[in-house]
Amino acid sequence: MIDLNGFEEYLRLVVAENTVSNYTSQLKKCLEILNEVDEFKPLSDEEKLIEFSKKEMNYKKIYDNYHNLNEDTFSDHRSAARKYKSFLRYKKIREMMKQYDEYPKKFPLNGAYMFFRVFNEEKSYPIKALCRPIRDYLGLPDNFTTVEAIGKLKKIFGNNNIEIIEKLYDDEKYVSVGNEYYYKDKYVEAIKSYKKAWNDFKNIDKGYGGVYAANLIDELGYLLDNEDYKKQADKIRNEIVKLLQNNNKTKWDYHTLITAYFGLGEFDKIKNLINKIINDDEWEIYTTYEACYKLNKLKKFNAKEILKIFFEEVFEIKKIGLALSGGGFRASLFHLGSLAALAEVDKLKDISVISTVSGGSIIGVLYYLKVKKLLESKKDEDITQKDYLKVIEELIDEFLEIIPNKNIRNEAFFNFNIFSSRTQKVAKLYYKYFYAKYNVICLKDLLIIPKGEKNFKPRFQNFKRKNKVPILVINATNLNNGHNFQFHATKMGEVKSEFDKNFRVSFLRKGCEVFDNFLVSEAVAASSAVPGVFPALKIKLQNMELSLVDGGVYENIGLNALFNENVDEVIVSDGGYEMENLQKLSISYSIKMLRLFPYLNRTISVLMDVNKDLIYEKITQNKILNILADERNEFEVDCKKMKFSDEENFRGFFSKIRTDLDKFNKSEANAIIYLGYIKMKKQLKNEKFYEYDFNFKEIEILWMSNELGKIIKDASKRKILR
């Protein structure tokens, strides 16, 4: 008999509560079918499920002899059987733990699950997996170290096994550090970390760090035209091949060998190896395909026929990120213009990641919800440029219905509910005015499942699509540790950094109550909670209370999230605050700007400006292609007709337009939208435009007249008391 009660208890630990009944019902149906199959009849119920769960055995044909099942149903049954097989191992470990001190009493479920994750039959999880399940489930910080856990393991499993696991941890740690250096463009440090994983832990690393080192050294060799680097890369690859070719191989060894052979140009040895991995999960195949694709492009191999073996055709690997900066409703309006220009060059379909901050989050989430509706209602091949143009047209119309009529800042300020803060009130207003009609309430509801797909993973499956499924990242700042706090459709928390020694809030995921119940509007409210205007949004975890404020405190453009996603190209729409040049920092200036602490405010402005300079410096490096629509670029306007002395004078007036959440009249709103439009259009000047009527004709006339200059000057004089 199968242990359904224990299985359900286990499921509540490792999956979301609302999927428990689904797994158990699938398990029962699976067992009913297996009881009718001759091959399974002699086995016990548990043995039937274990045999069925084995990946290398394909029972689809056996199933089809008894029931006409589609592929999805078969996959659901297989998934339930695999979960039950995992539960049986988990149960054994839990029984074993009962012998040892008080630890199981403190974490009776998580403790067993922690050991299970480490000592599964593939032996693939390093020691850091000990703490990850506990941290994620209970919301503990990263400073909950592995030292205590290792002590418990030594009591149970003995010192020898622990030493092996610790070495695995070191190997993977150096590769992880190397990746972080690589994303920060510190290539020399990255190579050192990869090589340390390979040289110091060769028999454990088995080419994992080695192939990373070889590929990066090769990349530098071609960029710098350095033959010694190229030879060094091939030497490492040959060492990997020598180590792996005669050994018993795990599935990841095959992936490593394929990448090594491809880098060496030995394509005749790859075909059979690819057939060894062709039944692996698609995301696993994709990681190796991506490495080979980039090597093919770098070394100009012209090996398209080999690449076709992976997925039967060659797909381009190019990840484009869009950053929508902070800056209140002014930034939101500016981004509307940028999005309109991107729609006209049919660029929106190519966006793989959208990173938003503050005012960019307000409009970015609204745009994302419209794209979600489009992608879930039409098949990829049926979506055209006109669909995106219509999305932007509707977006502009919806936003302009709200902005001139609703003063969200004032509504939040006159909040007399002692049980909710102004920031919580803002969250409710965002939902009421912007998001309610889309029926998306919690973060987990943001997940996009494109029409015709199931369990879609954009990081690994987007490459096949003409219209990419964007990953949305809403950025806030955690005042507890000074980190960038991110909200995704599948998680919320902080990206790991090997360089920052403050504790990190590990990502909370599906199945964690805090994440499952967290509202989209709360994420946007946290992202736009300007310190001093709105209080921090509080999130209570097991042993701490987080205080989240405006994402612009950490970084106002949203580019760090794009770097974390390792994009190949960035598109920046920056409608944020531009620091004003001053001849003198006077008291009268402070009174005029409604600032009581001139030196403190000016210091904050300087820090934000320096941060922006550093970020822009990074994206203008050769590694990342970029399209920047921001206030720093020149304006193509006739300044004299608009009664501005020069472009700097015009830019000065525009930079003074408030970055607030109050009313913007239609003239102001249209002027800012059009500015974002012409700025982005100028940056896309080499692209082919499909001219679309966004009702900009009236603004185009004003743009070259005295009237628009007056609108911008008036808007720049209005401060937050309005």
Summarize the structure.
With 722 residues, the protein is of the alpha/beta class.
Spell out the key features of this protein.
722 residues; alpha/beta; 10-stranded mixed beta sheet
Q: What share of residues is helical?
A: 40-55%
Number of helices: 33
How much beta, percentage-wise? 5-15%
Mean of pLDDT: 77
Structural class: alpha/beta
Q: How many strand units?
A: 10
- List unreliable stretches of 5+ residues: 100-111, 118-149, 156-169, 632-650
Q: What is the C-alpha radius of gyration, as a whole number of Å?
A: 28 Å
Straight-line distance between termini: 71 Å
- Give the overall form: globular
What's the main sheet like?
Answer: 10 strands, mixed
Description:
It is a single chain. 55% of the residues lie in helices and 7% in strands. The chain contains 33 helices and 10 strands. Strands 1, 2, 3, 4, 5, 6, 7, 8, 9 and 10 form a 10-stranded mixed sheet that branches. β7 and β8 form a beta hairpin. It is globular, with a radius of gyration of 28 Å.
Q: What is this structure's SSE topology?
A:
Layout: H1 4-14, H2 20-34, H3 45-53, H4 60-66, H5 71-97, H6 103-106, H7 108-118, H8 132-138, H9 147-157, H10 159-183, H11 187-200, H12 202-205, H13 208-223, H14 227-244, H15 251-264, H16 271-277, H17 282-299, H18 304-311, E1 320-324, H19 328-344, E2 351-357, H20 359-377, H21 385-402, H22 408-413, H23 422-435, H24 458-461, E3 471-478, E4 483-487, E5 491-493, E6 508-509, H25 513-516, H26 520-527, E7 537-540, E8 545-550, H27 559-564, E9 569-574, H28 587-592, H29 598-619, E10 625-630, H30 647-655, H31 666-683, H32 697-703, H33 706-717
Parallel strand pairs: 1-2, 1-9, 2-3, 9-10
Antiparallel strand pairs: 3-4, 3-8, 4-5, 5-6, 7-8
Helix pairs in contact: 1-2, 1-5, 2-5, 3-5, 5-7, 7-8, 9-10, 10-11, 11-13, 13-14, 13-15, 14-15, 15-16, 15-17, 19-20, 19-21, 19-31, 20-21, 20-26, 23-26, 30-33
